[in-house]
Amino acid sequence: MRNRRPALSALAGAVSAALTLSACGDMSGGEPARQSGTIGIAMPTRSSERWLVDGRSVVEDLRDVGYRTRLVYGQDDPKTQASQIRSLIAQHVSALIIAAIDNKSLDGVLGQAAAAKIPVISYDRLVLGTKNVDYYASFDNEQVGRLQAHYIVEKLGLEEGKGPFTIELFAGSPDDNNTKYFFDGAMHLLQPYLDSRQLVVRSGRTALDEITTPRWDGAAAKKRMAEVLSTSYRTRRIDAVLSPYDGMSLGILSALRSDGYGSAAKPFPLITGQDAELPSVKSIIAGGQSQTVYKDSRELAQVAANMVDAVLTHHQVRVNDTVTYNNGVKAVPAYLLQPTSVDKSNYEVALVATDYYTAAQLK
Q1: Taking the model in full, what pTM does it have?
Q2: Stretch 276-287: mean pLDDT, rounded?
């Protein structure tokens, strides 16, 4: 079982050095007592290990400082999630932490939260098109894409002039604001090699709106990969796949395996990923998926819990970005954590030594 506490001491040091902004409320009159209250937590789905871990971590961190919690999962359905949030508001929760399914569909229900004076923390996925979101807790999402692209650049030797190589591009869900940040970060490094033809996308699909994957669905990624292989790679090998998320990466890997990849004569291409989910880490160790981007959800949960506690106790909310994350209505003050690239060479240091996984779990 994961230990949430190792690695959080480093976070505390980073937070203390961050830019600070005043939370809502009067800070005069000495040290306010911590409120006892209930925090509503709306996560997007139970179908991903990542969100199960995030939900548990947020609950534990809030309970550690005296709050009750109500955790709900939206079943990957925006209407279900909006209904759940309305129910949490009706139950008079003290604050909301929301990882949105459709980040453009919550303005109405968050207006109800604002009317009830319930502060809202946008968790990992920025809620768009509303003034009624107070803070944003996430990772540096462009850096996620840069780490994925850098892995491809380095392993293919593109900086040394090697190539040409074939590559296919995949992106996340079109209704997730993070999708464009991941894609922009990756393309910042990959575009010059596409322009020089050191990297060739044989399917021709390079625009973001051509490669998105609704709900980050692994089955949809598998289907598209199979179609690309059958139409564009009949007599050619694919050298790399930019995949933004582990669940999609495993779907892509399955399509490649069905096409005969995975042997000494026809090895798997480089396949990136994100979230260091257990099946993908095992795949990396076994020589399937190549890389993932590790985002320590324990740290993110701690940041979100700290934000809620600071708002409700009228302390300062620590943020380190007040400009980048504009949701179309306002720039939402954010605290961004740094992700880590993980492959077979460093998974023990990154994941086992930090108690994110035990060695036994990875066998």
Answers
A1: 0.85
A2: 97
- What is the end-to-end Cα distance of the chain in Å, rounded? 14
| Beta carbons of 314 and 272 less than 8 angstroms apart | no
Per-residue CA distances from 234 to 226, 229, 237, 288 (Å)? 11, 7, 8, 21
Cβ proximity of 308 and 342 under 8 Å: no
> How many angstroms separate the Cα of 224 from the Cα of each of 48, 96, 157, 167, 230?
20, 36, 27, 14, 10
pLDDT in tens, 310-321: 999 999 999 999
Looking at residue 175, the DSSP 8-state letter turns out to be T
Per the CB < 8 A criterion, the answer to whether 113 and 96 are in contact is yes
Q: Whole-angstrom Cα distance, residue 219 to residue 213? A: 10
Indicate the Cα dihedral angle 340, 343, 348, 349, nearest 10°.
-30
Neighbours of 79 (CB within 10 A): 12
Q: Which residues pair with 96 in a beta bridge?
A: 40, 120
Q: Which residue has the higher pLDDT, 353 or 15?
A: 353
Residue type, 239: D
Q: For residue range 166-213, what is the model confidence (pLDDT) as tens digits?
A: 999 999 999 898 999 999 999 999 999 999 999 999 999 999 999 999
pLDDT band at 131 (very low <50, low <70, confident <90, very high): very high
* Both tokens assigned to 234: 């009949």
- CA distance to 87, 136, 147, 289, 293, per residue, from 151 (Å): 44, 28, 6, 12, 10
**Cα–Cα distance measured from residue 174 to residue 181, given in angstroms and rounded to the nearest whole number:** 12
Q: What is the pLDDT of residue 35?
A: 53
Bond prior to 164 in cis (omega within 30° of 0): yes
